[in-house]
Design goal:
Keywords: Signal. The protein has about 170 residues and is an alpha+beta fold. The chain is built from 4 helices and 7 strands.
């Protein structure tokens, strides 16, 4: 009878030990002293990232400007990120997209989805908001340091933050 209870305990506990990574959330925003429509005109087109993001060298798009479009982001530090637009709402000044081809040399994440939006700020001007949900680059239970949760969170946070800070600078200079 004792072996039965040992096997039962192992079967019940084993799934708890075999878990994968949990999603990581990154949420960044910035208030910009410029009209929301002017900020959206600068940052809203899916191919405009290289105009306002300091880490982006070029953007190549295909499939149109809205839902179903794809873009390849060429980073100044090297590497290409491939994304697909899931939802584009120009009137609502918002779009959602996802990475569809991981490039661990460019970003230490295995997958992500994100939403970029521009809204009127409560005290005037605009608020640009960039939020994402991602998984670390190595989804095993013991990832190396360069592909763990901290590396993934740090890379996406830095990418969003650099972009938003420079968007503010560019939009307010117009």
């Amino acid at each position: 009878m004792k072996p039965f209870w040992i096997m039962t305990a192992l079967c019940v506990c084993a799934p708890a030990l075999a878990h994968g990574p949990t999603p990581i959330k990154v949420d960044e925003s910035i208030v910009i002293a410029a009209d929301p429509k002017a900020v959206w005109a600068l940052a809203g087109p899916i191919d405009s990232l290289s105009v306002w993001h300091p880490d982006v060298a070029a953007v190549k798009t295909s499939g149109g400007p809205g839902n179903g479009a794809e873009r390849e982001i060429v980073l100044k530090a090297g590497g290409v990120i491939k994304e697909g637009v899931d939802e584009y709402d120009g009137a609502g000044m918002k779009y959602s997209y996802r990475m569809y081809d991981p490039n661990l040399d460019a970003l230490p994440v295995s997958s992500y989805s994100a939403t970029f939006s521009v809204t009127p700020a409560p005290d005037g001007g605009s608020e640009a908001h960039w939020r994402g949900r991602l998984y670390r680059g190595d989804t095993s239970n013991e990832p190396p340091e360069n592909l763990d949760d901290d590396a993934a969170r740090g890379a996406i946070t830095a990418f969003f933050r650099h972009g938003l800070d420079n968007l503010k600078k560019k939009a307010e200079a117009r």
